[in-house]
Amino acid sequence: MSLYKCGNCGRMVELGADAQVRCPFCGYKILYKTRPGIIKKIKAR
Q1: Structure confidence at residue 28 (pLDDT)
Q2: What is the rounded distance in angstroms from the CA atom of residue 23 to the CA atom of residue 29?
Q3: pTM of the predicted model, to two decimals?
Q4: Residues 7, 27: contact at Cβ < 8 Å?
């Protein structure tokens, strides 16, 4: 299961491998995959 954000209403949607690419709340077909924020701490010299 992957987590996506709807392009219209902004709600978070969890879709499986066999699910249709459509927001269950508003019916919009464009979903954006969420990515974890990677923070790197690098010591400056």
Answers
A1: 96
A2: 6
A3: 0.71
A4: no
Type of residue at 4: Y
22: domain CATH number? 2.20.28.30
DSSP class of residue 37?
A: P
CB burial class (10 A; 0-12, 13-18, 19+) of residue 22? middle
SS3 track for 1-32: CEEEEECCCCCEEEECCCCCCCCCCCCCCCEE
* Contact assessment for residue 4 and residue 15, using Cβ atoms and an 8 Å cutoff: yes
Q: Is residue 21 part of a domain?
A: yes
pLDDT at 7: 95
